[in-house]
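Inverse folding, one chain.
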């Protein structure tokens, strides 16, 4: 029996593989250097279980099969397609799932316009990968490449294979670089031109001089010349940019006779060769009368150019197979022996006066026809318009499934959306995704996964397959990702970009339809807004109400608040009334955090607003409204403390707008009648003046002696009449006025509690805390927290 100390156990992360008659155990640390240990097991099933440290004895996740991750960029490109094809074929031989993580556009700049699609590379951090394969060459931009490197450096416990040219960002401690042999490939092409055609005057168009692959390919050209006894002439080497523009530039130098014609031009890739051919063709010059042209790194669309380019296809499929075999060797699952760079295939064309075989040409044309068919289907499809018209997610998913045929040969498609994908960006929970298949004949039941535990998606399939993870985003908003499942070694086409873009556009439209703030911003500024306050008018608030009433909010979540102002002053100065209404408008905007889309003036002196809150915190809304209004001195000075009433009711989606208003009007009428009765009390107007002065001077309210001297009341009579009018004692109302100011400061500022106490006239912080808690039932800190939990629609 083997005993290990507890500390060692805690540090060990293990993977159990039950494969027919054995259990294989390896530690996550140095997993690709540790021998696999086996012991008999009676079960014949095959699955993998990732465990937390043994001391916890708790299963994190279960995997049916091992998972190899492939990190690429715009993987639908011809070069990456071939590598992935080899990776998947070899992985499936060993019952291993392949997860390909890739962006879809792969633009040259990280910051503009699509940086958010590169967030897909966060999936590299998943602990479920048993090995990673990085396709180095397509990462053109420094920033995403550096980010990928950062993530890869955190994967210290698994082997990494880098496929392609050496790039310093991917020179990692636990990585192995493999590539085809560009030098020998180029040497083969030069040998063909010299041995088969007898050319000796050959120029070489390569890439930028500071790129390693440019020099490697140039070395192949040099070696062939040296082998055939031909002197190397540096003047026959032209440095380009690996793009068609370089070929066009060189063509114009020949056509304008700036440079003499050689017997042949070797191009270090097909793009530059195609640029050279196209420039001659567009000027109606038969290039074959002057010199031969060859390319390198076969591009599948050579049939689009004339004459048909002679080129060389690197054996990337075998490179992908080699990557998997090396990973398996490092994991000590197989012995792969010494692996050499795979030799490619020379593909003759008419550009060097050779002939292309009919079989090769038919294969290329067949692929082109298929690509053209799917391109036409996508261009003519009404998918975008249909998705934009959806009203809810269920309808959206059903409709999306009807357009699955636009993604060529796909076996399954999973829509994986972040929890809260439709909310504000700060509220999206990226740790959890809700996934579902959109394919009709599959299980469409939604299931939840954690961001980095992707194997749950693979559980739906009983055999090893390849899964492509692509970002689903609209501008800066990342919704989640689309996962394409292929049971064969296939890759999606470039036209798939249109499909996934339509999905993202449809989701954004669906989200905006349920975003009240956005919809309100789109309303007319003429018929729906009040000219005095710039708030919504009655018509505008009716539209807001109808949107809220038909949304998915539950009754009681949203409250309507109606405020009636300027009471009992019908003959008031018009100028002062306008000033007061504008002051109340400012108060309303403070209540709504200056979100004017959710509030309005529905008649001359009545305001309506909607807030989202909890039923339990309804009094918080009332406290906020009262404390803010009482601190608007212009209004209180002109109209006083008894000049406004308000009512708050939960939104009911069965009520029409006018019914909702009538309910408020009834409640407000009752309050107005109660206040009107106070005018029958002797000395009420004087008591109201006293109360107004208290709230206008909350920090230092007038004392009883000051009031008695001014109004010639005895202290006892003042206290009696005051309480009869307002149902609160003079002393207690002075405290309330100071606490009201404190509430206002807690809501509108972030100043410390001690500063709040000081601004409210308290010299003793503890005394302030005690009085505040007696009035509100909570501490100032708790009150501030409750205030900020309330949201405005």
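Residues assigned per position:
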């Amino acid at each position: 029996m083997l005993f290990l100390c507890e500390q060692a156990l805690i540090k060990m992360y293990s993977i159990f593989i039950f494969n027919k008659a054995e259990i294989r155990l390896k530690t996550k640390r140095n997993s690709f250097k540790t021998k696999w240990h086996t012991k008999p097991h009676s079960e014949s099933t095959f699955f993998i279980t990732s465990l937390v440290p043994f001391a916890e004895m708790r299963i994190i996740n279960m995997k049916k099969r091992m998972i190899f991750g492939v990190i690429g960029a715009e993987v639908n490109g011809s070069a990456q397609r071939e590598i992935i094809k080899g990776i998947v074929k070899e992985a499936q031989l060993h019952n291993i799932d392949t997860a390909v993580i890739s962006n879809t556009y792969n633009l040259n700049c990280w910051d503009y316009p699509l940086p958010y699609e590169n967030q897909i590379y966060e999936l590299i951090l998943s602990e479920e990968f048993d090995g990673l394969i990085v396709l180095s060459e397509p990462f053109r931009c420094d920033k995403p490449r550096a980010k990928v490197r950062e993530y890869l450096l955190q994967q210290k416990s698994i082997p990494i294979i880098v496929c392609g040219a050496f790039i310093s960002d991917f020179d990692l401690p636990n990585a192995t670089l493999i590539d085809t042999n560009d030098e020998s490939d180029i040497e083969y092409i030069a040998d063909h031109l010299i041995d088969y055609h007898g050319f000796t005057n050959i120029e070489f168009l390569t890439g930028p001089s500071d790129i390693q692959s440019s020099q490697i390919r140039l070395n192949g050209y040099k070696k062939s010349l040296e082998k055939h006894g031909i002197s190397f002439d540096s003047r026959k080497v032209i440095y380009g940019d690996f793009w068609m523009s370089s070929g066009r530039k060189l063509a114009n130098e020949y056509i304008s006779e700036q440079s003499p014609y050689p017997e042949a031009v070797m191009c270090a890739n097909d793009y530059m060769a195609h640029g050279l051919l196209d420039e001659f063709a567009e000027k109606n010059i038969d290039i074959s009368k002057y010199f031969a042209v060859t390319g390198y790194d076969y591009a599948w669309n050579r049939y689009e150019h004339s004459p048909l380019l002679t080129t060389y296809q690197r054996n990337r499929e075998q490179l992908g197979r080699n990557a998997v075999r090396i990973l398996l060797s490092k994991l000590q699952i197989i012995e792969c022996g010494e692996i050499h760079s795979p030799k490619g295939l020379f593909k003759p064309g008419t550009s060097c006066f050779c002939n292309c075989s009919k079989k090769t040409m038919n294969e290329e044309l067949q692929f082109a026809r298929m690509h053209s068919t799917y391109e036409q289907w996508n261009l003519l499809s009404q998918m975008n318009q249909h998705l934009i018209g959806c009203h809810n997610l269920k309808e959206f998913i059903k409709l999306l499934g009807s357009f699955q045929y636009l993604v060529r040969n796909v076996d399954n498609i999973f829509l994986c959306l972040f929890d809260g994908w439709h909310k504000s960006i700060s509220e999206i929970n990226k740790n959890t995704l809700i996934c579902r298949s959109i394919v009709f004949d599959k299980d469409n039941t939604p299931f939840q996964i954690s961001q980095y535990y992707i194997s749950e998606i693979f559980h739906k399939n009983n055999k090893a397959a390849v899964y492509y993870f692509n970002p689903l985003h609209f501008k800066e908003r990342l919704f989640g990702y689309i996962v394409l499942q292929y049971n064969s070694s296939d890759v999606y086409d470039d036209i798939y970009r249109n499909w996934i873009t339509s999905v993202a556009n449809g989701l954004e439209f669906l989200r905006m339809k349920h975003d009240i703030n956005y919809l309100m911003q789109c309303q007319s500024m003429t018929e729906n807004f009040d000219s005095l306050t710039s708030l919504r008018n009655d018509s505008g608030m009716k539209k807001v109400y109808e949107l809220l009433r038909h949304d998915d909010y539950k009754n009681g979540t949203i409250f309507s608040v109606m405020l009636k102002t300027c009471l009992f002053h019908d003959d008031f100065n018009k100028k002062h009334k306008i000033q007061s209404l504008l002051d109340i408008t400012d108060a309303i905007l403070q209540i709504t955090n200056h979100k004017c889309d959710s509030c309005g003036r529905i008649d001359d002196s009545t305001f309506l607003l909607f807030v989202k809150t909890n039923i339990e915190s309804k009094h918080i809304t009332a406290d906020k409204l009262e404390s803010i209004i009482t601190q608007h001195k212009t209004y209180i000075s002109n109209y006083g403390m008894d000049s406004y009433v308000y009512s708050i009711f939960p939104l009911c989606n069965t009520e029409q707008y006018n019914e909702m208003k009538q309910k408020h009007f009834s409640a407000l009428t009752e309050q107005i009648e109660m206040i009107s009765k106070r005018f029958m009390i002797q000395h009420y107007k004087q008591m109201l003046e006293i109360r107004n002065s208290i709230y206008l001077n909350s920090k230092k309210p007038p004392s009883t002696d000051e009031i008695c001297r001014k109004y010639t009341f005895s202290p006892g009579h003042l206290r009696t009449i005051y309480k009869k009018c307002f149902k609160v004692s003079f002393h207690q109302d002075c405290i309330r006025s100071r606490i009201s100011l404190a509430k206002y400061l807690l809501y509108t500022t972030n100043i410390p509690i001690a500063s709040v106490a000081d601004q409210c006239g308290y010299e003793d912080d503890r005394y302030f805390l005690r009085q505040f808690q007696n009035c509100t039932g909570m501490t100032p800190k708790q009150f501030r927290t409750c205030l900020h939990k309330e949201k405005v629609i």
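Residues 1-60 have pLDDT under 50 and may be disordered. The longest helix spans residues 358-380.
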